[in-house]
């Protein structure tokens, strides 16, 4: 199965019903799948921090929210992840295209790419790095941790994840 | 009129319509808590700028409830992209009231861009929001709140904070009672 469909299936299995997105070239095939699924509300946003707020409101209203983003957006979200999600114990699934790691061709992606896991550690946000073979259950598991612990959990989709076999 | 007068009017409307309220951090939340504390009030404690976003996410998730987000000029200026997102989502059950006093009221009344010429009503229209209202006094705000349930209201008020106590609720208490209220059927 192609990687985009696997990620989308994992989101469906998890019961994600509100998705906020800031596009990344790696996520481009998932966004139309969300738009075509009547069980999911799709909210494209202008900046990731805005998306953290929307997802928090959605969770309080009973939804299971996820944010599809590039890891650069983690930097745009840090205050909200701390002073909203951490403070109020609000879970959130961050499904993140992890640029700037092995295989990256754009030099500007490298600094945030290298900082991503240490920023997540600093923020006390657990992360998982799925393979194509286990991405569906990994997303399901990530939400289980998020909802049980009342915090964000990140799913890091590395460059190799998207590459053709 | 001052911000607390506007908040008093919004709280009255929320009671009449059984609306959920998301309220901006700092003095606005303290003033709302003082004027009318309810389980259906969510008091932000951090994350400046996100009141309009939290309100949008909530309104999309509870389409049968009416949602009011109380925001400030400084906070909207910090997250203006939110207005574009609200414009293309067009929730029927969502009213964003921006109380514009031209200052950063919670940090010592430094001037915001709205006191230097930025027109948030024009920004909201330019972002694509169709229902935008600007009010300049108590009577106009009262009339607008009576007639309008969706879109954006820019309520221009004078600078100044009311002297009100801090909110004696923990974050856990605020969110727990709010989510219980969100899950309650509307009628």
TrEMBL record, chain A:
The Thiamine pyrophosphate enzyme N-terminal TPP-binding domain, residue ranges: 6-104
GO process terms (BP): coenzyme M biosynthetic process
A Pfam family this chain is assigned to: TPP_enzyme_N
Superkingdom of the organism of origin: Archaea
Catalytic activities: 3-sulfopyruvate + H(+) = sulfoacetaldehyde + CO2
GO molecular function, a single term: sulfopyruvate decarboxylase activity
EC number: 4.1.1.79
Gene3D superfamilies cross-referenced by the UniProt entry: 3.40.50.970
Record keywords, A-Z: Coenzyme M biosynthesis, Decarboxylase, Lyase, Pyruvate
NCBIfam families from the UniProt entry: sulfopyru_alph
Protein name: sulfopyruvate decarboxylase
Organism: Methanococcoides methylutens
From TrEMBL, chain B:
Ribosomal protein in keyword set: no
UniProt superkingdom: Archaea
GO biological process per UniProt: coenzyme M biosynthetic process
Domain (Thiamine pyrophosphate enzyme TPP-binding) ranges: 43-147
InterPro entries registered for this protein in UniProt: Sulfopyruvate_deCO2ase_bsu, THDP-binding, TPP-bd_CS, TPP_dependent_decarboxylase, TPP_enzyme_TPP-bd
Record PROSITE patterns: TPP_ENZYMES
GO molecular function: magnesium ion binding; sulfopyruvate decarboxylase activity; thiamine pyrophosphate binding
Class of the enzyme per the UniProt entry, highest EC level: lyase
Record protein name field: sulfopyruvate decarboxylase
